[in-house]
């Protein structure tokens, strides 16, 4: 396979992306709030995990750029629910309820945002139980928080050398232009979507994995960097094995935010079982890499290989086993 651009240029494109820069800002914020000192749950995961009886309560929040809310308000509202569900699923959990905060300059701007949230709430079967709305703000802003529960956790901190990296993405969709969002949800049957999100807690409860992350705005490689940093490991990603829709350039796909996409760290003996579980629900999944003892994330295609991020010298989040500050 010939990459366009070349693998070195592709690695540089990822390193200099806006999404990677946004993740680097997490380190500054964590330091200002002393988040690394919080003992109740590891910081840097997709949700805060708070011990509760025989499991964990999961608590997370997502905020959305004003430009995204303004350009596609209905879908922004939908995403307010959906991306929070992905965070809970990535931790091996199931959602309980969400609350929202919507700011806009007038009531007409709020209506499509709330309509998108309502549609997603009904589709995924997750209630909206409260929130805050202001119609005298300067521009459209949206944030949504979620509460969930996990019987058995998946975390960002438990990938170990020798595990394989399973990449699972629902390819039954298309880009929602002009953003790089791969949208495979709004036209899908509710029962299909709910069954897909049930896969992650099933994997956790069957003991098939201990570590996973949902593929975020940082894309497949950026998400792998965050997993590697939190677990104090490295990742070697084989680009040719990543599930990808026909006709989508690799450089765009690696910077895409899929509506359903996860990376899962899986012991060798469990890889076929995990891939089969995803496949049974129509989700494309493949063994696309290896968890290593090195502290970097590499991409490769054929005989070409390039380090995208050296965590030993430059943590991305400033959190986790390879980047935790004392």
Description:
This protein is α+β, with helices and mostly antiparallel strands and 326 residues long. It has two domains: 7-33 and 155-310, PurM-like C-terminal domain (Phosphoribosyl-aminoimidazole Synthetase, Chain A, domain 2, Alpha-Beta Complex), CATH 3.90.650; 46-150, 60s Ribosomal Protein L30, Chain: A (2-Layer Sandwich), CATH 3.30.1330. Helices cover 33% and strands 29% of the residues. It has helices at residues 7-15, 18-33, 66-71, 73-90, 107-124, 190-197, 199-205, 219-231, 250-253, 271-280, and strands at 48-52, 55-64, 93-103, 128-134, 141-150, 164-169, 174-175, 181-183, 211-214, 234-238, 257-258, 261-266, 284-292, 296-301, 304-310. The protein has a seven-stranded mixed β-sheet with strand order 9-12-6-13-10-14-15. A five-stranded mixed β-sheet has the order 1-2-5-3-4. A three-stranded mixed β-sheet has the order 7-8-11, with no helix packed on it. α4 (73-90) packs parallel to α5. The longest helix is centred in the first third of the chain and has 18 residues, at 73-90.
Observed structural traits:
60s Ribosomal Protein L30, Chain: A; 33% helix; Phosphoribosyl-aminoimidazole Synthetase, Chain A, domain 2; 7-stranded mixed β-sheet; 5-stranded mixed β-sheet; 10 helices; 29% strand
Task: Report a brief summary of the structure.
By secondary structure, the chain is of the alpha+beta class. The protein has helices at residues 7-15, 18-33, 66-71, 73-90, 107-124, 190-197, 199-205, 219-231, 250-253, 271-280, and strands at 48-52, 55-64, 93-103, 128-134, 141-150, 164-169, 174-175, 181-183, 211-214, 234-238, 257-258, 261-266, 284-292, 296-301, 304-310.
């Amino acid at each position: 396979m010939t990459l366009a651009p070349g693998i070195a240029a592709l690695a540089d494109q990822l390193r200099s992306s806006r999404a990677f820069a946004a993740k680097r800002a997490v380190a500054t914020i964590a330091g200002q709030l002393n988040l690394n000192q919080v003992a109740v749950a590891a910081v840097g995961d997709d949700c805060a995990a708070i011990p509760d009886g025989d499991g964990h309560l999961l608590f997370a929040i997502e905020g959305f750029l004003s430009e995204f809310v303004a350009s596609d308000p209905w879908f922004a509202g939908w995403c307010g629910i959906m991306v929070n569900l992905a965070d809970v699923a990535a931790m091996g959990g199931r959602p309980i309820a969400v609350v929202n905060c919507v700011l806009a300059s007038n009531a007409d701007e709020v209506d499509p945002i709330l309509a998108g949230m309502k549609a997603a709430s009904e589709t995924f079967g997750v209630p909206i139980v409260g929130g805050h709305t202001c119609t005298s703000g300067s521009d459209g802003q949206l944030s949504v928080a979620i509460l969930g529960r996990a019987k058995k956790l998946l975390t960002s901190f438990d990938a170990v050398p020798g595990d394989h990296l399973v990449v699972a993405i629902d390819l039954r969709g298309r880009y929602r232009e002009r953003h790089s969002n791969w949208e495979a949800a709004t036209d899908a049957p509710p029962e299909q979507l709910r069954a897909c999100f049930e896969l992650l807690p099933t994997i956790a409860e069957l003991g098939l994995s201990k570590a996973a992350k949902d593929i975020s705005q940082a894309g497949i490689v950026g998400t792998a960097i965050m997993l590697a940093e939190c677990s104090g490991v490295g990742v070697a990603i084989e680009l040719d094995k990543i599930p990808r829709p026909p006709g989508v350039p690799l450089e765009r796909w690696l910077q895409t935010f899929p509506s359903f996409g996860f990376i899962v760290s899986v012991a060798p003996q469990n890889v076929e079982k995990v891939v089969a579980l995803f496949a049974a629900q129509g989700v494309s999944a493949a063994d696309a890499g290896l968890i290593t003892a090195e502290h970097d994330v590499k991409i490769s295609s054929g005989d070409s290989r390039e380090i995208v991020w050296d965590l030993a010298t430059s943590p991305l989040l400033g959190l986790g086993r390879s980047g935790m500050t004392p």
